[in-house]
Amino acid sequence: MKDIPKIFLFFFTIIWSATAQKNCNVFKWNGDDCKYKACVFLQEAPRYFQLRREFHEVHDKAIEICPDYSEPYRAKSVAYLKTGDFIRWKKLMDKAVDLNPVEHLGYRGWGHFQFFRDYESAISDIEKLDSLTDQNIGYSQNGMYHLHIARALCYKMIGNKKKAISIIEDQIKANDDKVGLYDHLHLGVLYLEIEQFEKAEKAFFSQLEEYDCAENRYYLSLVYKATKQEDKYLENISLARSLYKKNRIMTDPYTHQIDKIYKSDVAKEYQNSLVRKY
Amino acid sequence: MTIKVTCLLMVILLTSLFSCKGKERVESDTIKNVVGEIFHDKETDGDFEICGIQEHIIQYYAFNEKVFKGEKSALIRYFKKRYRIIPEANQSGLIRIRFIVNCRGEAGRFRLLAMNSDYQKVAYADDITDQLLSLIKNFKGWKPMQAGAKMRDYYQYLIFKIANGELIEIMP
Lengths: 278, 172
Prior knowledge:
The complex is a heterodimer.
Chain A: H1 3-19, H2 25-29, H3 33-44, H4 53-65, H5 71-82, H6 86-99, H7 101-114, H8 119-132, H9 147-157, H10 161-174, H11 183-193, H12 197-210, H13 214-226, H14 230-245, H15 263-277
Helix pairs in contact in A: 3-4, 4-5, 5-6, 6-7, 7-8, 8-9, 9-10, 10-11, 11-12, 11-13, 12-13, 13-14, 14-15
Chain B: H1 2-20, H2 42-45, H3 72-82, E1 93-101, E2 107-116, H4 126-138, E3 145-147, E4 150-152, E5 154-163, E6 166-171
Antiparallel strand pairs in B: 1-2, 1-5, 3-4, 5-6
């Protein structure tokens, strides 16, 4: 049951970040009347669906009030992100980042990674953000990953697994009370891929404490397959099958995560385990 | 059980959050989208028809088993098995094909957008784009979508990541 509040917390983060209002007074206190006016204008404007003409007209008006206020550029970009228009999304997000890098580099980096699998740009954004602030650089837009974990996954995808492992290890070590939903799982898969089976098993055991999903059991079964522990191999692939049926899998409403597995992967491995056993 | 409890908590949270917002959500009866609408083009869209009216096509962002038969792995297999690498084109970047799936699960009104690795709009070699368009037009795995009691038309897209003419990833 430990994972229920955690999953809930992640969804809460998504909803909160999507609906939270800015404190416009911050601009007033800093003597930035232009941004204050644009911020208040957006807060008082009617709310429209992101793809609608009125939504963009309202945000264009905010840009007119204060061309240096980054928020309307970011807000307008979301419609293009969700419809896969990478060119217009990028143009708007670049503008937002130019105006306020600390505020938007993390979001642009996550967008590069999650929606466009542009690993190099994601790494560059997250590392730039890290160099600009002493504060915690924060989490992905969906709340599921700390941005350092996202960065690690990008390194993995461009082939630098050692660096990916090192980043995840450091992140978990420094924040062992705030481990992400899939952090141990990704670490375990990395160790499995470089054939460090003991470390992989340890990571998958840690993942059991966070969220015991089909992916975790599937990869754990592969550790036992590689180390020729046939009973554990069969036991864990059977558990993966059962968890998959219960829909305890890696999920994301918009995209499919790195290391996600499919029903066909589990079915194939289950058949393999039966053949080896009997 | 976990998922059900989580969903219930999410519904409660969403209801409370949006009911507290105090802002009126404005809707319109006519087409007002400036982003994402695909209108019929006699020259390219053939006899593909939507079931409802343009204003009611759902802008559906999620990408899951609700919209295609099988899992994403089946879709990846379909494209990777059939796509022929075009190394001589030496092109890299992203190609998005956006389209409509009608209430019968038929896809049409395909629109292509392509960029290079610097997010600049470019034209890809016909051998690449024609191939992808042909494959996506022949893909029969889309599901019709039910919303309430009605079967509805909806938007969908795929992004193909190309490296030196090779198809290396499919998103979302």
